[in-house]
Write a structure and sequence with these properties.
- By secondary structure, the chain is α+β, with helices and mostly antiparallel strands.
- It is built from two helices and two strands.
- It has a two-stranded antiparallel ribbon with strand order 1-2.
- A hairpin with a 5-residue loop joins strand 1 and strand 2.
- The protein is elongated, with a radius of gyration of 21 Å.
Amino acid sequence: MGCGSFVKPTKIFKGRNFTDALLERYVSIDAPEVAPNSTIPDTYVLTSKGRMKAIELVGERKIRFSSV
């Protein structure tokens, strides 16, 4: 109470709608699968012993299609 701020209208970002924000943040359902066999092709990390370990994305299809 008794306080306020003044902002120029040109400095205000009005945002975007919820659907656009979701599509920007997450992949669309009809996009190609990233990990068709639960592994991301040609993507590896090094283990503590210096070996290459494939990165796995388990359940991609379940995650995408459970919300439909």
